[in-house]
Design goal:
By secondary structure, the chain is an alpha+beta fold. The chain is built from 24 helices and 22 strands.
Length: 745
């Protein structure tokens, strides 16, 4: 009955207040465990389980291509053909994108812009926050994201005004709500592919930069859509000739992926591991509190025996113990929810740019319902052990022993709980240790460059007529010369690639040698003199680029060791021309420059990737639209940041002022997924170990308190204090050793 339940709660509260320090410790330990679980549940639910903010998201898929070098997009010139041939979908749109400079809103700024084709917004089914989304065939419009519009165009009257994005001025047609962040979380604006800015990027057949987003027809499965996409690919690109194995290596296959998996697939394993770790922390906390409750039951056994003798049933005692567990669990859960709120805010700030869909992360009703279920589970877990003791204990013995020694079953039960806590904590520590070792080995392995004392800044020059291909050559030379004159600069240069995250342009070239005639995957990087010195590249033989090469108009090239093996396996490449021509970007330049040196391999595509076979050519031969300025200093390179930014601004005020970062920071950014696993895993493991050790300490303290009379008798019979201490420590060592063995097994 309710009155009986309330009476049990009142008795439980009175009993808990009588041992307030034990109660406070139990509440604190459980609050930490439930707080960690609440925060991880909120993050996992918001990212993985909360429905996408689009109409019928389960029917949305993304179509791309897969080749030997990984996943890529569709050529821009083939997008319309794909849209017409696909039969398994009812609506199709395309998207690409890049970084473009926005002008006319104060300082020029570089933002992420999506280039869209077709009824992109209508297909996704998200209405704008302000304004109207233009028709699919409209031109010269731009749609802004809510966060970017709030910073740049906060007033409602901004709709209809002109904004310069890249090479064109566009009318602001609409502002999308903050929850609409497709195709990337950091997208700031959307432009049609018919815009001048998009056309400047190019829709060459070899530029595989577009992906399709499509809505499946009713009743069509993803597998059927994959078969349909494979058919379209065969029609557009017939399979390679089986007699040409070199060409066959570059065959493509269509990839159709549910949109939800595209957005969250990368982080699903990470969040699953973190959720498992959080559950282990909660189990350790519950084991600790259950051990405390068993100790309380043992200390109260004389009181419980008296009540049994006076007619109370064992079920009545079990109800009171469960009521105490419920009070502790409820109090700890309320505190844990507040801790979870704080941890969620911390995660949202710390994981910005790492985890997707952070706008959907919140401690709301589903998370609170899950927390309530966890509280009920905690009640059962924490109350089960003392309740079991109350059911099975020989309370008649309490009148006979009067505390001469502790209850052997209770001691065994506490030992089992402590062993379980230590074993679970060791499991977490072992997992965190493996992740730590992986990260350390990754950072220690040879990368081919030296990040210390170097900073880098991006120079965006591809999206405006101000910086044509030929004008980028003197501009970049002016920037590098200004930076080299700065005090404390040892070397400076600009390159189209940047280790370890920005790989050079990949291309397939046909290499004919005495022994073979096949395609080779080669990467092509354009750099200025001083760039390889700035990143700390190793010269194997020959020489590096020099300013004299530019002054004398020489067209020269460098090969990485892997490129030399691929392009010239049987002879020394130095002094010979490249075996393939460069793209005709700058008129009048030699398209087959002479190789002047060999440099060490550099890991441009990630520290855990293979070194790429890279050909380096002069910036004057192949000026890129995006350059990476690298500056090596004599001391603290980070102190050069303001001077580097000022030099860029002085070279050309139209050039966006870049953010300056150290190469060490670039390395840390390149392993951010692993860091996302590492730091929470370490934190959870340390917390679990601390709770387990606290449980061991409390268990031994309680055991000594229960055995005071026994220990006094041992002393009277001749036992020394040192011997008694050794006995107690030996018992603790046995429990710890069993826990360690179980955890490592």
């Amino acid at each position: 009955r309710m009155s009986g339940f309330l009476y049990d709660l009142r008795l439980g509260a009175r009993s808990l207040l009588a041992t307030r320090w034990t109660t406070a410790a139990a509440v604190l330990i459980l609050a930490l465990g439930t707080g960690v679980n609440t925060s991880v549940l909120a993050v996992a639910y918001g990212i993985l389980l909360r429905p996408l903010p689009y109409a019928e998201p389960s029917r949305l898929v993304v179509v791309a291509l897969q080749g030997e070098g990984g996943e890529s997009g569709l050529p821009g010139a083939e997008v319309d053909e794909w849209r017409q041939r696909l039969r398994a979908v009812e609506r199709v749109a395309a998207y690409s994108g890049g970084e473009f400079t926005v002008r006319g809103l104060g300082e020029p700024r570089v933002v992420r812009v999506a280039l869209v084709k077709g009824d992109f917004f209508g297909l996704l089914g998200v209405p704008p926050e302000r304004g109207r989304v233009p028709a699919a065939d409209a031109e010269d419009w731009v749609v802004l994201g809510s966060s970017f519009a709030g910073r740049a165009l906060p007033d409602a009257g901004a709709l209809g005004r002109y904004v310069t994005v890249g090479q064109g001025a566009y009318t602001v047609a609409a502002v999308m709500p903050g929850r609409f962040t497709f195709p990337w979380d950091e997208v700031s604006a959307w432009l049609p592919t018919s815009s001048r800015t998009a056309l400047a990027v190019g829709e060459r057949r070899e530029a595989r930069s577009f992906r399709l987003v499509a809505r499946l027809k009713a009743g069509v499965s993803v597998e059927q859509a994959r078969e349909d996409a494979a058919r379209v690919l065969r029609e557009i690109h017939p399979p390679a000739n089986a007699k040409d194995p070199g060409a066959k290596r570059f065959e493509l296959r269509a990839v159709v992926t549910p949109l939800e998996q595209v957005l969250t697939g990368r982080v699903r394993p990470i969040l699953s591991v973190l959720l498992a770790a959080a559950i282990i922390v909660l189990l350790v906390s519950c084991g600790n509190v259950a051990s405390l409750f068993v100790g309380r039951a043992v200390m109260r056994r004389h009181h419980l025996a008296v009540r049994l003798a006076l007619g109370a049933s064992r079920w009545r005692l079990v109800r009171e113990i469960l009521a105490e567990s419920l009070l502790v669990a409820a109090t700890a859960s309320v505190a844990g929810v507040w801790i979870g709120f704080a941890l969620v805010r911390l995660v949202v700030r710390a994981a910005a740019g790492v985890l997707p869909r952070l706008d959907a992360v919140a401690v709301d009703l589903p998370v609170l319902a899950a927390s309530a279920a966890v509280a009920f589970l905690i009640t059962l877990l924490c109350g089960a052990a003392p309740a079991l003791h109350a059911v099975r204990a020989d309370f008649a013995g309490a009148f006979r022993t009067q505390g001469a020694t502790s209850s052997r079953p209770a001691r065994r039960l506490r030992a089992v709980l402590v062993v379980s806590q230590i074993a679970l904590a060791i499991v977490l520590l072992a997992g965190a240790g493996l992740v730590t070792r992986t990260v350390v080995k990754l950072l220690e392995q040879a990368s081919g460059f030296q990040p210390g004392r170097a900073v880098t800044a991006r120079l965006v020059m591809s999206d405006t007529t101000t910086f044509s291909a030929t004008s980028r050559i003197p501009l970049v030379r002016d920037v590098t010369e200004r930076v080299r004159r700065l005090p404390g600069v040892e070397a400076a240069g600009v390159g189209s690639a940047l280790p370890p995250r920005v790989a050079p342009l990949m291309m397939g070239v046909r290499v004919k040698t005495e022994r073979s005639d096949e395609f080779q995957a080669i990467t092509l990087a354009s750099v200025t003199p001083g760039y390889l010195q700035a990143i700390g590249a190793r010269l194997v033989r020959g020489r590096l680029f020099q300013e004299a090469d530019l002054d004398m108009g020489r067209s020269v090239a460098l090969l990485s060791e892997s490129a030399a093996k691929h392009l010239s396996p049987s002879k020394d490449a130095i002094g010979r021309p490249l075996v393939f021509p460069l793209p005709p970007v700058v008129a009048g330049r030699n398209r087959k420059p002479e190789v002047i040196g060999i440099v060490g391999d550099i890991k441009y595509a990630g520290l855990d990737s293979k070194s790429l076979a890279t050909v380096y050519v002069l910036w004057a031969d192949l000026p890129a639209g995006l350059g990476h300025l690298v500056v090596r200093g004599a001391g603290d390179a980070a102190a050069l940041a303001p001077s580097v930014q000022r030099a860029v601004r002085e070279a050309d005020p139209a050039l966006p002022v870049p953010e300056v970062k150290t190469l060490d920071d670039e390395i840390l950014d390149s392993i951010r997924d692993r860091r996302l696993r590492l730091f929470p895993a370490l934190g959870f493991a340390i917390l679990a170990l601390a709770v387990a050790l606290l449980g061991l300490s409390a268990s031994m303290s309680r055991a000594v308190a229960e055995r005071r009379r026994e220990l006094a008798i041992r002393g009277a019979l001749g036992a020394t204090p040192a011997g008694t201490l050794r006995m107690i420590l030996a018992e603790a060592a046995v429990v710890t050793a069993i826990g360690l063995t179980a955890g490592l097994a």
